[in-house]
Amino acid sequence: MPHFADRAHSAAAPEDVWKLLYDPTRFPEWWAGVGTVERADPGSYTMYPDGYPDFPMPQTLTTAPGCVAISCQVSDLRFEWRLRPDGTGTEITVDVELPSREAHRLPTQRDLIHRSMLALAALAATP
């Protein structure tokens, strides 16, 4: 199964990063490629990609202390975000898994997630 990981540092406290990561309605503010989000039940939401307002993509969201896992119900991509205090802010890591049939999307997903990590880190640190 194709996968990759990325990491970033935010000057923000873990609680401030968590507020952006836990709330899918905030994803369009920092997650590259996410156009809009509609919240459904507490453990699910629907994401509409940038440029595709008529293409709903249901997602599940589960949490554990310091961890948010998101699974796309359409393409089976899985994102596991983790936060860890590092003394000067927060270390943000993400592990991404793609099913073999989506392997061709690996370079694009790497780029989108890297840009998203940097945007998340910066937005969380903005007063």
Proportion of strand residues: 35-45%
Count of distinct structural domains: 1
What proportion of the residues is helical, as a percent range? 10-25%
Largest sheet report: 7 strands, antiparallel
CATH topology, what is it called? Alpha-D-Glucose-1,6-Bisphosphate, Chain A, domain 4
Count of DSSP strands? 7
State the name of the first-level CATH class: Alpha Beta
Overall shape: globular
What value does the Rg take, in angstroms? 14 Å
- CATH homology group: START domain
Mean pLDDT figure: 95
Q: What distance lies between the first and last C-alpha atoms, to the nearest angstrom?
A: 39 Å
Q: Taking strands numbered 1, 2, ... along the chain, how are they ordered across the largest sheet?
A: 1-7-6-5-4-3-2
Order of helices and strands: EHEEEEEEH
Structural class: alpha+beta
